[in-house]
Structures are given as structure tokens and as C-alpha cells.
């Protein structure tokens, strides 16, 4: 049951990336910049 939950999250992440790649892309970039600083 836990494995399925993980799979669902992975699929959701991909779906969101395809639906709003611009929103997720900058989000990740901001995190990267903060980490680098």
C-alpha cells in the first residue's frame, strides 16, 4: 500500500510539471539559488 502511495505522488509530480511546468520550474530554481547562496 505504501508503494502505491509513492507511485501516486510521482505521477502527480509529473502531471503537475506537464500542466504547469513554468510554476514548478522556477520554484525549483529558487530553491537551488537559495541552496547555492
UniProtKB/TrEMBL annotation:
User: What protein am I looking at?
Assistant: Uncharacterized protein
